[in-house]
Design a protein that fits this description.
Radius of gyration: 29 Å
Strand order of the largest sheet: 6-7-8-3-9-10
Oligomer: single chain
Structural class: alpha/beta
Number of strands: 18
Distance between the termini: 55 Å
Low-confidence stretches: 1-9
CATH topology of the largest domain: Rossmann fold
Number of helices: 17
Number of domains: 2
CATH superfamily of the largest domain: P-loop containing nucleotide triphosphate hydrolases
Mean pLDDT: 88
Largest sheet: 6 strands, mixed
Strand content: 15-25%
Helix content: 25-40%
CATH architecture of the largest domain: 3-Layer(aba) Sandwich
């Protein structure tokens, strides 16, 4: 999408940004940014340090001025709005605040009513009713007379949120509001923001460092890169391995949370993941036998290093399928809770015939997937190089009454190479040694 204007529901726009540019001296921080935010949406802004996230929200909330372009809030150009006008439309929740005076919690929350209080008038009954309501909502009533500086970090942040709520504005901007808090407060505050968004219709725009926190709760994600919008849209369309690699220069796994069924992002910690020495230098085709998620680490590793890979046979709902789809790896699928059919077995054999090498991960074997082990033996009969990742003893993975263990041992006798680590796997793929010599060395290591 780049810098183009988002076409998501522009008729319901509460915030419109057009051709926004901003510089600190000669340093251009924002470059021709355009987008729309709809009423009642929850938008998370993600990007590395220096991408322009804080600058963007500081301009929108009119903390920074002298920008190029046009910004409209609730249909009005912000250049025509004064500070109180902006505060009635936009409330900002910063990471933290440290007032120099010893204000009580109630006094701090009451400060959120300043857009509605005339210069020479005192707070009204309505103002006190509003702060009582927001203090109940943020569970601060018991702290009303406590000094703000005597509170814990999480309690202080509740006060900051309550102060923003007291502004009674349709838009709430969150500037990394949970980045320095324990997980219990992170969950508490995100649940509160979700309630405000879904039950009260508040439009929320948040900057987050925690990608998972953002994608679990957002209806829209904006990825910023070097002052420009890299992607903007629904999480499922924006958050993927390629986009995150481009923006954060870090390889990650993008999967589904088994409980929420929302996406989640996990960094890759394999020490051989970023090693250039293991990049594929020739078009080696590798077929990986899948099942129970055992193939996923190998699929991801070899894909990262440039190998052409395929996978099978996997049952529907297996996590290996999610990995294959994420990496755009061809795979063979079987119906859930069903034994591998003749059709699927033949397809698996076709993949094996087209490959240079076959890998068997540390799979649990039952009667349903026993055919995959048979396919490994067929690979050897076709003079294919076979690597077996071995960790837990086959007897502990054999749920066929010994049938799988017996065939497994025959496969070893007939020439399959046993490896135990990803380094051995990558070394094997790179080796120029004749296969019989390398197999002998590996099996000596195993002994």
């Amino acid at each position: 999408m780049g810098n183009s204007i988002s076409n998501i529901g522009t008729n319901n726009s509460i915030l419109s940004v057009r051709n926004l540019n901003f510089s600190y001296g000669d340093n251009k921080v924002l470059n021709n940014i355009s987008f729309n935010i709809n009423k009642g949406s929850f938008t998370s802004i993600l990007g590395p340090n220096g991408a322009g996230k804080s600058t963007l929200i500081n301009i929108i909330s009119k903390i920074l001025g002298k920008f190029e372009g046009e910004i409209k809030v609730t249909g009005e150009n912000i250049t025509a709005l004064n500070s109180k006008d902006i505060a009635r439309r936009i409330a900002v929740v910063p990471q933290s605040t440290n007032p120099s005076f010893g204000f009580t919690v109630e006094e701090m929350v009451l400060m959120g009513r300043y857009p509605y209080i005339s210069r020479f008038k005192r707070e009204t009954k309505e103002d006190f009713e509003v702060i009582r309501e927001v203090m109940e909502k943020t569970e601060l009533t018991q702290f009303a007379d406590r000094k703000f500086n005597e509170l814990s970090g999480g309690e202080k942040q509740r006060v900051v949120i309550a102060q923003a709520l007291a502004q009674d504005s349709p838009i709430m901007i969150l500037d990394e509001p949970t980045s320095h808090l324990d997980i219990n407060f992170q969950i508490e505050f995100m649940n509160l923001f979700l309630k405000l968004n879904r039950r009260e219709g508040k439009t929320i725009i948040g900057i987050f460092h925690d990608i998972n926190l953002a994608i679990q709760n957002s209806s829209l994600i904006m990825l910023l890169k070097e002052g420009s919008i890299f992607r903007f849209g629904e999480p499922e369309k924006v958050i993927n391995r390629q986009n995150l690699n481009s923006v954060f220069h870090s390889d990650v796994f993008v999967g589904k949370n088994p409980v929420t069924q929302r996406m989640y992002v996990s960094p890759v910690f394999d020490p051989y993941y970023s090693t250039q020495d293991y990049q594929a230098v020739k078009p080696v085709k590798v077929h990986i036998i899948g099942g129970g998620g055992a193939a996923s680490p190998i699929l991801s590793l070899l894909h990262h290093h440039g190998y052409r890979i395929s996978c099978g046979v996997i049952n529907t709902f297996d996590t290996d399928i999610s990995t294959c789809e994420m990496l755009d790896v061809p795979y063979i699928v079987e119906a859930p809770f069903s034994p591998i059919s003749i059709i699927s077995r033949n397809k698996n054999l076709e993949f094996i015939k087209a490959s240079d090498l076959v890998i068997l991960p540390e799979i649990e074997f039952g009667n349903g997937n026993f055919s995959n082990l048979v396919s490994i033996r067929e690979a050897l009969s076709l003079n294919k190089r076979v690597l077996i990742m071995e960790g837990k003893n086959i007897e502990k993975r054999d749920h066929t009454g010994g049938k799988a263990g017996k065939l497994y041992r025959k496969i070893l006798e007939e020439g399959a190479c046993v490896i135990k680590t990803h380094r051995q796997l990558l070394d094997n793929l790179k080796t120029d040694k004749p296969d019989n010599i390398y197999r002998k060395e590996l099996n000596q290591q195993r002994i």
